[in-house]
Here is the input.
Amino acid sequence: MTERVPYDPFSNPHPAVAVDVILFTIADGELRVLLIRRELPPFEDAWALPGGFVRADESLDEAAARELDEEAGVSVRWLEQLYTFGAVDRDPARRVISVAYFALIDALELSPRAGGDATDVRWCNVRRLPKLAFDHKQIVRYAHQRLRYKAEYAPVAFQLLPKDLTLSELQHVYEVIHGKALDKRNFRRKVLGLEILEPTGESRSEGRGRPAALYRFRRDRFRDLGGGVVLEF
Amino acid sequence: MTERVPYDPFSNPHPAVAVDVILFTIADGELRVLLIRRELPPFEDAWALPGGFVRADESLDEAAARELDEEAGVSVRWLEQLYTFGAVDRDPARRVISVAYFALIDALELSPRAGGDATDVRWCNVRRLPKLAFDHKQIVRYAHQRLRYKAEYAPVAFQLLPKDLTLSELQHVYEVIHGKALDKRNFRRKVLGLEILEPTGESRSEGRGRPAALYRFRRDRFRDLGGGVVLEF
DNA sequence: ACAAAAGTGTTGAGAGTACACCCATGC
DNA sequence: GCATGGGTGTACTCTCAACACTTTTGT
Here is the structure.
């Protein structure tokens, strides 16, 4: 408080700003995150979250969406800011703070492809992560925790499914996120009681068993998905 | 994804990183935030949240605590990261992203004093804010919302009170945060049922009326205050 | 004795949980 | 006709909300 000369970050050493994106999906009954293989040092050839530096003329939200698109070929309509990681030594080479975002996507909706500074892309089981660059393992754990927590009160699971869905598919998503089985009758009563699903009148047969009725998420009944940013592209 | 030359923030225009702190207290039955009067442009002489640029050798948490101490003479033991604001035009002069933190303090514990880049300090009713610099009004609103939400499940109110407290004082804090009256019996049953309060055996007389029993918050029963960072100074 | 704040129990409603069988279809 | 997944109701428990009077102190 005795300092009279203002600290000017534009003429002093200062942190750079990056964004990283944790993209979740569900496939083969597993919760998975999207990883890319880094082209550049530090951590050359290591697995990492898609992400990169924020440019002067774009918002954080835009930067996150752009990096996800560039490095993994994935476009999302919805992103939520997770946390900003700012430990001094989280990047061994230089000072970088990272604003982490997370997003959810229906696995069938896309096929990721490497691009930008990434030489490879893959989906990886959240519980079986390889060694990751920087503090990215910690970031993924934090994101998983937030996802579980969020799934308690927000209809996040709809992001992980196609537009038309069955109640069993929805229940399955919640079971994977929480890692435990749920009672079918209680689940259905609860979800239908929220009045955010409307029956399409159609049904879908999975080959064997009775065909399941299809529902559609009523976005208008639940405008706010709980803190996320809806991007308009 | 066709870009081959990596974007290097250290040799290109890039955002600077600041922290801002929303410090809440309760006084005279109002929820208040700490504001400082800016010495420097932009928004010279305007009211704003205490905050400033992050230095290369300190974490975000440390920067938030340092700025609060420098500009307002306030030391806190606990800070929680709120959100990172990154709109391109939030600072009219240059590109700055701001990592917002919030903290709670017992109003009697300190007397803020201006310092650093601040020429004045005051406590201000959350519902009657003056014009604020940058997007700080929006940040305060966001923080207030988070505080209400957080108060539902985390024992945040203890941060706003002295170590020894009465149940009526605690109830009063919750009433101010939520802006509505609570039932005394239900409140007491619920709080005592959490088993995070221990009676000190003492009591305190406020002059008139029956003296109230004093309690102390059992930190060991509730290690995590719900996402915050406990600073060790 | 009275004003002022502290303290104390019971009841009813709604939400969550546990639990088992019939239904529609493909093969 | 049988295997497979879809679809349905009821009873118990627990939590939350509503509600009014007695107790202790200072003046």
The first strand of chain B starts at residue 16 and ends at 27. The two ends of chain B are 46 Å apart (CA to CA). The interface with chain A takes residues 1-3, 6-10, 12-17, 40, 52-61, 69-71, 73, 81, 83-84, 86-88, 94-95, 97, 99, 115-117 of chain B (CB under 8 Å). Residues 16-151 of chain B form a domain with the Nucleoside Triphosphate Pyrophosphohydrolase fold (CATH 3.90.79.10).
